[in-house]
Amino acid sequence: xxxxxxxxxxxxxxxxxxxxxxxxxxxxxxxxxxxxxxxxxxxxxxxxxxxxxxxxxxxxxxxxxxxxxxxxxxxxxxxxxxxxxxxxxxxxxxxxxxxxxxxxxxxxxxxxxxxxxxxxxxxxxxxxxxxxxxxxxxxxxxxxxxxxxxxxxxxxxxxxxxxxxxxxxxxxxxxxxxxxxxxxxxxxxxxxxxxxxxxxxxxxxxxxxxxxxxxxxxxxxxxxxxxxxxxxxxxxxxxxxxxxxxxxxxxxxxxxx
Length: 257
Ligand SMILES: CC(C)=CC(=O)SCCNC(=O)CCNC(=O)[C@H](O)C(C)(C)COP(=O)(O)OP(=O)(O)OC[C@H]1O[C@@H](n2cnc3c(N)ncnc32)[C@H](O)[C@@H]1OP(=O)(O)O
Known about the structure:
This protein has 12 helices and 10 strands. It has helices at residues 30-45, 67-70, 75-80, 88-91, 108-115, 142-150, 152-161, 167-173, 185-197, 201-213, 219-233, 237-248; strands at 6-11, 14-19, 51-55, 60-62, 97-101, 104-106, 118-122, 126-128, 165-166, 178-180. It is globular and about 60 Å long. 39% of the residues are buried. Ligand LDTOBESC binds next to helix 2 and strand 6.
């Protein structure tokens, strides 16, 4: 399939989506959003794919939603078209997604990174929610996901001032799982995704669901949910294989069922 604003590649069991609007610093226009969500859903359905990576360029993961596209729109238009609701489809992807972020991840770019499950940052990464400087507020979940990731104090400051934070501050705050040198970012992301894609596919999906549930429910409900999924892992062939492999002192051969 031909894409205008993204590149899609396969690296073994990993699907790689690269944002590709370099002249606009990967600003997220409606076409790019559709292409990313469509590609991610296709990779999610593909049994030969176990994990996804989304990345941008060295200068920008994405500098936000496309301001030039947004600017002339009226309230009835954005409301009736339910602008940015389509990004919710990325949150519905069941396989783990890694965001490999170098350069600017601002506004919708930061929100796209936070829609992913593991956020790897190059030492050049800069995160922020600068929408307030444009007379708007985050619209792809930034005020919610950033607050859950780094806490109210810092999220409030970033959303109210539009200040950017660098990779080290983002890692200290808990937004980023790891910082790597910019030149090694993609290799690290693909290596991490390959490890995840080598696990049992249903078990990886259960692990993602269980961790995500912690964002949405009480501790007691979350622990109950986790326990039910844990019990369900015993209905898979991969639980038998994983434990047998440990006992036999060999690597497991997961069959993804
Ligand atoms: C409202 C919601 C829900 C979400 C949002 O995301 S709103 C947007 C939030 N993002 C921003 O406000 C960042 C806007 N961009 C910048 O502040 C700067 O571009 C920069 C600091 C990221 C980089 O500055 P630099 O001087 O290095 O580069 P520029 O000359 O400014 O940009 C190059 C080229 O890209 C176009 N660009 C950059 N960001 C966007 C964007 N978000 N939307 C549309 N176009 C963007 C920029 O206009 C320029 O293009 P031209 O050379 O054609 O002017």
